[in-house]
Design goal:
Structural class: mainly beta
CATH topology of the largest domain: Jelly Rolls
Shape: elongated
Distance between the termini: 20 Å
CATH class of the largest domain: Mainly Beta
CATH superfamily of the largest domain: Exo-inulinase, domain 1
CATH architecture of the largest domain: Sandwich
Number of strands: 31
Strand content: over 45%
Radius of gyration: 23 Å
Length: about 400
């Protein structure tokens, strides 16, 4: 095998209890708006609603909570550890300004090392700035403003009402990432978060990414049920069609094989010619090299350019191991990123370079995934405007 190619095989592909949809989805495009010179306020959080904590993903959820002093509410992190990260995963950002209030929880003057994360990409790949020795203490709130400008290649930190930056740090990465907070020493509180970014206001949708599954974890459905219907015949690609990129798909020894073209500019999707709404999908998959892929469900081609958009269940044959996480391709991005200690077991469920059983259930606005029998994602999409109720399945 050419090592520049990624190969995966599907041995079992079936749906049960589905309703076949003959008409194509007419859901609204979810692509972010065109950037404008003017920055708009796209996010605001004062933690008055205790459910607001669901806008975050935490490396250690037990150390984070929304508390109240009677006058105001705030997000508090107890304990200090560089790995105890809180991420605002409402939206990945590139150029943006973020303002927030911070105070150490000690109630007395102290100088713990609080850090602002301005570009979190993966657990072992993120950028932060330390505010050590910047007069943060436990007796009063301090306003902090972060400005990230990838065109200028820098990040600026302003303290209080100062018009001159306290810190100017280089930022050579022109990648989107999540903002967040952590501390090497001292428990701290966060309040009154505001984020400004370029773009049209209507392009930014409120998101709710749970640090834990939103539903009660259930056992994997019984895929031995005789009412399953095969949608891959093991011989041909009848009923399937390729979309977008230039990867190759073919049948070999009863398996569906996909070979990636590393020079291609677009992902390739082998999609069903029919649309489905409620279903259980079961299949086995194996990679022959490290890589990243996913399974599109309730997906469609955008009218403006024909590119695929819709829900995607991650298949992550890399050390990150986010297989089973739920994402939206060319849309609202991550619903269930497998970040933090809570997902340690689920990240280990996928076996690198071996056969893996993936089960996906879509029932109304409820999405569940299992990897080798272990529950991974359990998510309710309550966004009535942007949630998709039907679409094709694509590899």
């Amino acid at each position: 095998m050419n090592t520049s190619k990624l190969v995966f095989r599907i041995t079992l592909l079936a749906v049960i209890g589905f309703e076949l949809v003959t008409n194509k989805s007419n859901a609204i495009d979810k692509e972010a708006g065109t950037a404008e010179e003017k920055y708009n306020l796209i996010y605001q959080q004062d933690f008055e609603d205790f459910r607001s904590v669901s806008d975050f993903v935490f490396a250690d959820p037990e150390r984070w909570s929304v508390k109240s002093t009677g006058k105001n509410s705030y997000l508090e992190c107890s304990g200090s550890n560089k790995e105890n990260i809180g991420l605002l995963v409402w939206r990945r950002l590139e150029d943006y300004n973020m303002e927030f209030d911070v105070m150490f929880s000690s109630g007395k003057k102290s100088s713990g090392e609080f850090q602002v994360i301005y570009n979190f990409r993966e657990p072992d790949s993120y950028s932060d700035i330390s505010l050590k020795d910047k007069n943060l203490d436990g007796r009063k709130w301090t306003k902090v403003r972060l400005e990230r400008n990838t065109l200028q290649g820098e990040v600026r930190i302003y303290m209080g009402n100062n018009t001159e930056p306290e810190i100017i740090s280089s930022d050579e990465l022109k990648e989107k990432g999540w903002p967040g907070f952590t501390s090497l020493s001292g428990s701290f509180r966060i309040d009154n978060i505001k984020v400004w970014a370029p773009g049209k206001l209507e392009a930014w949708r409120p998101r709710c990414y749970p640090s834990k599954p939103t539903g009660k974890l259930q056992k994997q459905p019984d895929i031995s049920d005789p009412s399953f219907v095969n949608i891959f015949d093991g011989k041909t690609l009848d009923g399937w069609k390729p979309l977008n990129g230039t990867a190759m798909y073919y049948v070999e020894n009863g398996d569906l094989v996909g070979e990636c073209n590393p020079k291609a500019k677009l992902n390739t999707y082998l999609s069903t010619e029919k649309d489905y709404d409620n279903f259980i999908l079961a299949f086995e998959v194996k990679y022959e090299k490290l890589g990243n892929s996913g399974i599109q469900i309730r997906s469609r081609e955008r009218e403006k350019d024909g590119l695929v958009t819709g829900y995607q269940v991650e298949i992550d044959n890399s050390e990150r191991r986010w297989t089973g996480g739920l994402y939206e391709e060319r849309g609202r991005e991550w619903f269930t990123p497998l970040v933090g200690d809570y997902h340690n077991d689920t990240r280990q469920a996928f076996r690198l370079m071996e056969w893996n059983l993936i089960v996906i259930k879509a029932d109304g606005n409820h999405f569940q995934t299992w990897v080798n029998g272990i529950p991974v994602a359990d998510y309710y999409d309550n966004d009535k405007e942007f949630a998709a109720s039907q679409g094709f399945i694509g590899f």
